[in-house]
């Protein structure tokens, strides 16, 4: 009997160690798939020369509090993470873009690999006259989000969808910045999606 208990405990210890080793200290992780984000295009191979983001599209995490805090201007799409700097490169304004119509209803969708308690999701869009050949700055964005989804600390689903309306007064090429604010850490996740009207 003692041998069986010892074997079971050793087996449990190995399983627990495996979970800890593979799970690490991962908190929330996710990225937008609708409209397709830059990291999603890198992950699915549509865009190449993306560096490590192609294997970690869910890891674009940086300080929360945007726009008062958060990643520095010019480094917003990478969340200030140097390993993902390719996301800040405007590539001459040639990132693939989702076609939208002004004022249309739209379902914004995040793919979560590790959902985490959430304060809110906010969606910003660039101002008219934004230059898609330059890295994203706060001055490039409308000062207020066009949509905010309050979560009150709830945990999102592995596929998190938000029904909203695209701003009515936009034309040409723009960028939508999705910011997922984690409730109980100091961080948020950032996703830049290029769009065209």
From TrEMBL:
<protein>
    <submittedName>
        <fullName>Lytic polysaccharide monooxygenase</fullName>
    </submittedName>
</protein>
<dbReference type="InterPro" id="IPR051024">
    <property type="entry name" value="GlcNAc_Chitin_IntDeg"/>
</dbReference>
<dbReference type="InterPro" id="IPR014756">
    <property type="entry name" value="Ig_E-set"/>
</dbReference>
<dbReference type="Pfam" id="PF03067">
    <property type="entry name" value="LPMO_10"/>
</dbReference>
<dbReference type="InterPro" id="IPR004302">
    <property type="entry name" value="Cellulose/chitin-bd_N"/>
</dbReference>
<feature type="signal peptide">
    <location>
        <begin position="1"/>
        <end position="21"/>
    </location>
</feature>
<keyword id="KW-0503">Monooxygenase</keyword>
<dbReference type="GO" id="GO:0004497">
    <property type="term" value="F:monooxygenase activity"/>
</dbReference>
<keyword id="KW-0560">Oxidoreductase</keyword>
<feature type="domain" description="Chitin-binding type-4">
    <location>
        <begin position="29"/>
        <end position="195"/>
    </location>
</feature>
<keyword id="KW-0732">Signal</keyword>
């Amino acid at each position: 009997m003692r041998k069986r208990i010892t074997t079971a405990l050793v087996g449990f210890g190995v399983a627990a160690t495996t979970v800890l080793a593979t799970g690490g200290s991962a908190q929330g992780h996710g990225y937008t798939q609708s409209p397709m984000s830059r990291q999603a295009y890198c992950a699915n191979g549509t865009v190449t020369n993306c560096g490590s983001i192609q294997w970690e599209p869910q890891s674009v995490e940086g300080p929360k509090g945007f726009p008062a805090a958060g990643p520095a201007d010019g480094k917003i799409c990478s969340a200030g993470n140097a390993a993902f700097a390719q996301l800040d490169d405007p590539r001459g304004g040639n990132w693939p873009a989702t076609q939208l119509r002004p004022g249309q209803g739209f379902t914004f969708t995040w793919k979560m690999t590790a959902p985490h308690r959430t304060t809110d999701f906010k969606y910003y869009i660039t101002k008219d006259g934004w230059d898609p050949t330059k890295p994203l700055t706060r001055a490039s964005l409308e000062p207020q989000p066009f949509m905010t989804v309050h979560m009150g600390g709830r945990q999102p689903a592995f596929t998190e969808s938000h029904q909203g309306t695209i701003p009515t007064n936009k034309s040409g090429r723009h960028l939508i910045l999705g910011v997922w604010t984690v409730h109980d850490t100091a961080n948020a996740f950032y996703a830049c999606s290029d769009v065209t009207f």
